[in-house]
Design goal:
Layout lengths: L3 H8 L6 H6 L4 E5 L11 E5 L2 E7 L5 E5 L13 E3 L2 E3 L6 E2 L5 E3 L7 H5 L5 E2 L1 E4 L2 E4 L22 E9 L3 H8 L22 E2 L4 E2 L8 E6 L3 E8 L8 E10 L3 E4 L6 E10 L2 E10 L8 H7 L26 H5 L9 H11 L16 H18 L20 E6 L19
Antiparallel strand pairs: 1-11, 2-3, 3-4, 4-9, 5-6, 6-7, 7-8, 10-11, 12-20, 13-14, 15-16, 16-17, 17-18, 17-21, 18-19, 19-20
Helix pairs in contact: 1-8
């Protein structure tokens, strides 16, 4: 359990909050590259750590991330004209380049731009792994951008689900690293079967175990931690074990166990204290393999215009009880809720905007959740006292070297060696 003070430290990200300031020492995903694929296309509204932003790609294919509201009178730049290498506010025509420089002020006297040299708040941006990333920390401390785990090469096949969660980032992330819940909450989508490992079909991920109480083993690392959920397999339970490893890559990325068709990662990105953007990435290093964007969104019941509105908010939500179908539950569907992400969000959002962890009663299956809380509370305190942000100190492991694991292995095998390259075996002191 956490005290209320510790819970506040873990959850709050806006303004001067230590957790939010620490996150600003990392490159943050502001939107998907798909949303701003078109040069001179419409600007996209975004929000990160309590700040309202607009993202655009100018006519020279340069990315711009600006504070949403025009510094002149506060009108939103999301309605602006993306023209001739800049974004022009509709209200009085002030125009901004990707670095925030005011390059035209038609409502002012001639020469006003040169004389006043005004600048709007802008953040550096990079593109990689299907996302647009932004640096919101001190400019003098900007770190070199590195590709995420799911972009080991530019040719990797990447499919992305994006979905809004109406609650705090930490309770979303705790669900992402909680391997035990999948045996219950997602049991209809992950049924047991006589298979050699997690096997993906068009509608389900077959799993070689009926064990709902995995044994948890934990290992701290320089990037966060990794842990194993070890279950009894259906085949050869006397000599073998079913192992699923999960990696927490601070501050909010999780590499979850793969299946036989594609690998999986999630980012649980805080928009503010009580809203989170949930990104679920299915990927494969071979562009001829994996799953298509359309099929991935269909599998997750997360297609814009069908399951989500234009702002990635769920049509199945708390106002309609996530369209839970009790008749389907009587016929065997465990939750009566369509889509793995929506099943999760029904649980996460039902905890309230910010869960009160001082009332929790964790069990043995909550090992990773408890360790996450301890790790991030300690990291925020250390950063607030002048230390480095978690995941930024040396030695560091390139994220493209990191990988989760899923499969049946002999009981004599050390799970720490499964799916881990030599660099990833470094354990933080």
């Amino acid at each position: 359990m956490l005290t209320r003070e510790q819970n506040e430290l873990l959850c709050r990200v806006e303004g001067s909050a230590a957790m939010g300031r620490m996150m600003r020492r990392h490159w943050l995903p502001v939107c998907t590259a798909e949303e701003v694929a078109q040069k001179d296309g419409p600007p996209v509204r975004a929000r990160l750590l309590g700040e309202d932003l607009v993202v655009f790609r100018n006519s020279k294919n340069m990315l711009g991330v600006l504070q949403e509201h025009c510094p002149h009178r506060g009108a939103s730049l999301v309605y602006g004209r993306n023209e001739e290498d800049g974004l022009r506010c509709l209200y009085h025509g002030w125009k901004f380049d990707v670095e925030g420089n005011v390059v035209d002020m038609p409502s002012e006297a001639a020469g006003a731009c040169e004389r006043l040299k005004m600048k709007h708040l802008a953040y550096p941006a990079r593109e990689g792994g299907g996302f647009i990333w932004v640096w919101m920390g001190p400019p003098e401390l900007m770190r070199e951008f590195e590709p995420p785990a799911w972009a080991p090469t530019p040719r990797a096949r990447i499919s992305i689900v994006k979905m809004h969660a109406a609650c705090n980032w930490a309770q979303v992330l705790e669900g992402s690293i909680d391997s035990a819940h999948s045996s219950s909450l997602h049991s209809t989508n992950m049924p047991p079967a006589e298979v050699a490992g997690s096997t993906a079909t068009d509608s389900a991920w077959l799993r070689p175990s009926v064990d709902k109480a995995p044994k948890m083993q934990f290992e701290p690392t320089v990037y966060g931690f990794r842990y194993a959920a070890i279950r009894q397999p259906l085949r050869d339970p006397e000599t073998h074990q079913y192992v699923r490893t999960t990696l927490f890559v601070a501050p909010f990325t999780v590499l979850i166990p793969p299946n036989d068709q594609y690998r999986l990662a999630q980012m649980l990105v805080p928009l503010d204290d009580v809203n989170t953007m949930f990104y679920w990435v299915a990927w494969h290093p071979d562009p001829a393999k994996g799953i298509s964007q359309e099929a991935w969104r269909k599998f997750c019941c997360a297609t814009v215009g069908v399951d989500l509105d234009a702002n990635f908010r769920k049509l199945r939500n708390s106002s309609n009880n996530y369209m839970q179908n009790r008749e389907e539950m009587k016929r065997g569907d465990f939750t009566g809720i369509q889509g793995i992400p929506t099943q999760d969000m029904a649980m996460w959002e039902s905890m309230g905007p910010i869960a009160d962890r001082s009332r929790d009663k964790p069990g043995q299956s909550d090992l990773a959740v408890v360790q996450f809380r301890r790790l991030m509370v300690a990291a925020a305190k250390k950063f607030d006292a002048g230390g480095p942000a978690i995941g930024t100190a040396e030695p560091r492991i390139p994220h493209v070297k990191l990988a989760s694991f899923e499969g049946i292995a002999p009981k004599t095998t050390d799970w720490r060696s499964l799916g881990a390259p030599e660099e990833a075996l470094v354990v933080s002191k």
